[in-house]
Write a sequence for this structure.
């Protein structure tokens, strides 16, 4: 657009005012502005000149306002263009959020297992040793295995300090609201507390939080990969898994699973919390009592006997022992360090130790 003005027969001071006003006008690049100024003789008595000057100045003011509006609109358009890119950057966040949720879904499709190792508050060295044993086992594809140490209320001042430090460092301890015992309800408190301890929350978005929950002794060595692989084809509801007692028996529906380590599906843990059957029968050998709960409640229609992949350490030989062999899920009765070392050597647990100048082993 070409705008042309002819300024003529105006007083000199009005020329200056007009020119300064024109300089203040912001023009868009699309505008071509041509100004022709013709200086003519000023006639002071002409009302015509004063009136035309007045209207011309008003015209310039209107023109300046229009251009300011257009320029402001241009800037606003630019800001809108920048804002229109914001959803793209947020869509990146959304993409990340979806990828995170995809990983949640992936994790939700994984098999999730909780192993609760029942022990005593003062067994600090045993817990540190077991952290080495389980912490050096490689991750298992498609599985999430959490190992927690489980005991009753603390009763000593030193426990309140040392156990608190363990929790701060490892976060792998469950303290039950009970008095320490073996066969007077500790196992019941453990299983019945799990649904509340691991209820669905922001930190725990899955249901069930674990497909399977296990009670294990602290003298049992579990080979996690073999353990997980044995569970993959099994039902995830109403399941009871372990080493059948008595030792010669192979029928999981007649008796019960050994306390070395038995596992149930999550729905059975919820049943233990809700049913009156376990509450009315707490005392006695904990593994035997547990089997009686399931029998009386007509639960665990799916049962799996892991014998002889689970067994007692071969020495001294009994009807419950078995020699160490590759097809092993768990070894029980590792009552001293010598038995632990013999077992760990057999399964060559240090095979992944990397060579280094820093040590000679």
């Amino acid at each position: 657009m070409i705008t042309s003005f002819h300024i003529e027969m105006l007083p000199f001071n009005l020329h200056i005012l007009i020119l300064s006003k024109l300089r203040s006008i912001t023009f868009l690049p699309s505008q071509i502005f041509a100004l022709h100024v013709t200086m003519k003789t000023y006639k002071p008595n002409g009302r015509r000149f004063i009136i035309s000057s007045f209207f011309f100045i008003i015209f310039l003011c209107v023109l300046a306002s229009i251009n300011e509006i257009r320029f402001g609109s241009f800037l606003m358009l630019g800001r809108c263009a920048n804002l229109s890119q914001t959803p793209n950057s947020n869509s990146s966040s959304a993409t990340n959020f979806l990828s995170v949720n995809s990983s949640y879904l992936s994790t939700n499709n994984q098999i999730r297992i909780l192993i609760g190792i029942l022990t005593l508050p003062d067994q600090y060295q045993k817990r540190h040793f077991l952290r080495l044993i389980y912490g050096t086992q490689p991750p298992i594809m498609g599985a999430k295995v959490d190992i927690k140490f489980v005991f009753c209320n603390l009763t000593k001042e030193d426990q309140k300090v040392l156990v608190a430090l363990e929790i701060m460092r490892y976060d792998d301890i469950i303290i039950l609201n009970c008095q320490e015992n073996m066969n007077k309800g500790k196992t019941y408190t453990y299983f019945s507390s799990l649904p509340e301890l691991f209820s669905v929350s922001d930190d725990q978005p899955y249901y069930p939080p674990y497909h399977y929950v296990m009670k294990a002794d602290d003298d049992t060595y579990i080979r996690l990969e073999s353990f997980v692989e044995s569970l993959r084809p099994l039902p995830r509801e109403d399941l009871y898994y372990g080493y059948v007692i008595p030792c010669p028996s192979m029928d999981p529906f007649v008796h019960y699973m050994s306390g070395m380590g038995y596992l149930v599906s999550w729905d059975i843990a919820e049943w233990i919390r809700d049913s009156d059957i376990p509450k009315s029968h707490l005392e006695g050998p904990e593994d035997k009592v547990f089997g009686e709960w399931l029998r009386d409640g007509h639960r665990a229609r799916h049962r799996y006997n892991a014998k002889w992949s689970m067994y007692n350490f071969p020495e001294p030989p009994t009807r419950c022992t078995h020699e160490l062999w590759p097809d092993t899920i768990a070894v029980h009765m590792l009552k001293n360090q010598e038995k632990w070392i013999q077992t760990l050597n057999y399964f060559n647990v240090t095979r992944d130790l990397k060579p280094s100048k820093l040590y000679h082993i």
Q: What stands out?
A: The chain has ten helices and 14 strands.
